[in-house]
Specification:
Keywords: Membrane, Transmembrane, Transmembrane helix. Pfam families: UNC-50. It is a single chain. This protein is about 75% helix and about 0% strand. By secondary structure, it is mainly alpha-helical. The chain has one domain. Helix 4 packs across helix 5, helix 4 runs parallel beside helix 6 and helix 5 packs across helix 6. The termini are far apart.
């Protein structure tokens, strides 16, 4: 009886390993991927992310895991990241070499690197502080990273696609009423992207019925609104600052 926790832990590790191995083995088997369902998820991440809560719970009920076992979403996500990065590079006037450097940094640092840090931190916090002690089931790390990818997608579309349409307006806001309007509207994109990320993160963890107090994930939203108002009051154009940082990255 005293060894049962260790046996359970080893079993969980083996199970996670098998799931991960099975996931990556399917990565190049396109005929086994459900791209239509992945596109449906992407659409609802933008239009009505709360509807995906039922998807998370259904996956747990039918496949005994919250994390995706189909790489189709990851493939489409990587494609969207590459396409939006091409548009961003064109708008910023990158050379081909600079574009490749920008793409590598965007994928391996901004998306995967920061995502691993966020997913690992929230995986630890949720298991340590938000999960009742008497529940043996843990939050899967794979699901924590899935939540990050879900939450990252709408900001990607907002900031690397829609924002490009108004690129010149935000980078050179000019003077007077037009410049101030560009400042308000431009910074609003970053506020919306931040709130999207937090809200979808909240929905992901809230879908796990084993967790409590998941509304704590929404606490940063009022602070983000406050920061937005401060940037507008101070005349700080977030787009200008971020675009300048992106240019320095590839020089």
């Amino acid at each position: 009886m005293g060894n049962s926790p260790l046996i359970s832990s080893g079993s969980d590790i083996n199970s996670a390993y098998q799931k991960t191995r099975r996931y990556f083995r399917r990565l190049f088997k396109f005929e086994q991927m459900d791209f239509q369902f992945a596109l449906w998820q992407m659409f609802y991440l933008l239009a009505a992310p709360q509807k995906l809560t039922k998807v998370f719970r259904a996956r747990k009920n039918f496949k005994s895991q919250y994390a995706r076992d189909d790489p189709a979403f990851l493939i489409l996500f990587a494609g969207a990241l590459c396409l939006t990065s091409i548009g961003f590079a064109v708008a910023l006037g990158y050379s081909f070499t600079q574009f490749l450097k920008f793409l590598v940094v965007e994928i391996f640092i901004d998306c995967i690197g920061i995502g691993v840090v966020i997913a690992t931190t929230l995986w630890y916090v949720t298991n340590k502080f938000l999960k009742p002690k008497n529940i043996p089931q843990d939050v899967e790390w794979g699901f924590a990273f899935d939540i990050h990818l879900n939450a990252f997608f709408p900001p990607l579309i907002l900031l690397h696609f829609l924002l490009l349409i108004f690129y010149n307006l935000f980078l050179n806001p000019g003077n007077g009423h037009i410049g101030f309007a560009a400042l308000i509207f431009g910074n609003l994109f970053w506020l919306a992207a931040s709130i999207y990320y937090i809200y979808i993160t909240f929905l992901g963890y809230n879908s796990m019925q084993i967790l409590k107090n998941t509304n704590l994930f929404l606490v940063p939203i009022p602070w983000l609104i406050f920061i937005y108002l401060v940037t507008v009051y101070q005349g700080f154009n977030i787009s200008t600052a971020v675009f300048a940082m992106y240019k320095r990255r590839v020089v």
